Amino acid sequence: MLQVNNLTFQYKKQPVLKNIGFSVKAGEHVAVIGESGSGKSTLLKLLYGTYNLNEGDIFWKDQQILGPKHNLIIGPEYMKYVSQEFDLMPFITVAENIGAFLSNFYPEEKQERIKELLEVVELQPYAHIKVKDLSGGQKQRVAIARAIAKQPEIILLDEPFSHIDNFKKQSLRRSLFKYLKEKNITCIVATHDKEDVLSFSDKMIVLHDNKIMVKGTPQQLYKNPGNKLVASFFDEFNELENLGIVYAHQLKKVNTSNLKAIVKQSYFKGQYYLIEADLNGKTVFFEHGTGLEKGLSICLSILK
Ligand code: ADP
Ligand code: MG
């Protein structure tokens, strides 16, 4: 189990994280979310032992994770961290980068392992290409493969799919998270993509104002976001008087009701249209099967 107690940290005078506490069971996947600058990357770096804490402590099982004051080499052996900078070796091939930390003692097993890792990150056709000739997204995939090569007990991923295009992202995400679950590798992922969280995280932590604003399962927080920040992470939403937060898909056009609105704009979203309407001077959003004409008077009802 990873145990974080009362962690407080500042780079300079301004605190970045204050009294952070949480625990992660072995094999569990936790997503850290929060606005840009909320301290997600800093938290991952601290978990990796990159900096000395101002207060608090971090334990993996019974081993304390300590900062550079106590360690010559940053990062415990059982842990891997994939930063957004990748840190690859540009002049050797993808396969060589992935195999760089694997033992040469069993060459056949090593080649098998590299092949398996290339499959996880879907880079088989690029095995013999030099890393310098890859795109940003491809480099990001090499970095992920390299981090899981020696099967860490725990992996820290900082916005792991940020450079990867939508064509590849969905299948890569499934294949990586499935692999980590199968191998019982604990995973902490900093992300601003709800897709990383909804289907693949057991728990989520929301950072705001230097603190953990809320934590819970994605199901709990999706159903009861409690505040605008959490709701906006998941979906388009409205804040309605006396009714609180109502997602756009919970608001429906009906034949009669006392919520009367005027259509302002329709946005095509694929499976549905997102309709922007005026409800007593307040802008609201709801989903509808077709686009609606601007100026149309409609009635709305809430399906909770
Ligand atoms: P996030 O990953 O959520 O976008 P970061 O952890 O990168 O947030 O940053 C949190 C805060 O710490 C920001 O205000 C950022 O400017 C500051 N910060 C990050 N790295 C450094 C650094 N090396 N030195 C000083 N301040 C930093
Ligand atoms: Mg970051």
Largest sheet: 6 strands, mixed
- CATH architecture name of the largest domain: 3-Layer(aba) Sandwich
The side-by-side strand order for the widest beta sheet comes to 6-7-8-3-9-10
CATH H-level homologous superfamily name of the largest domain: P-loop containing nucleotide triphosphate hydrolases
Count of β-strands: 17
> So what's the CATH class of the largest domain?
Alpha Beta
How much helix is in the residues? 25-40%
Give a concise summary:
With 304 residues, the chain is of the alpha+beta class. The protein contains eight helices and 17 strands.
Task: Describe it.
It is a single chain. It is built from 8 helices and 17 strands. It has 304 residues and is of the alpha+beta class. The protein folds into 2 domains: 227 residues, P-loop containing nucleotide triphosphate hydrolases (Rossmann fold), CATH 3.40.50; 68 residues, OB fold (Dihydrolipoamide Acetyltransferase, E2P) (Beta Barrel), CATH 2.40.50.140. The strands form 4 sheets. It has a 6-stranded mixed β-sheet, with helices on both faces. Strands 13-17-14-15-16 form a 5-stranded antiparallel β-sheet, with no helix packed on it. Strand 7, helix 5 and strand 8 form a beta-alpha-beta unit. The mean pLDDT is 95. Bound molecules: adenosine-5'-diphosphate (ADP) and magnesium ion (MG). Adenosine-5'-diphosphate (ADP) binds next to helix 1. Adenosine-5'-diphosphate binds next to helix 1.
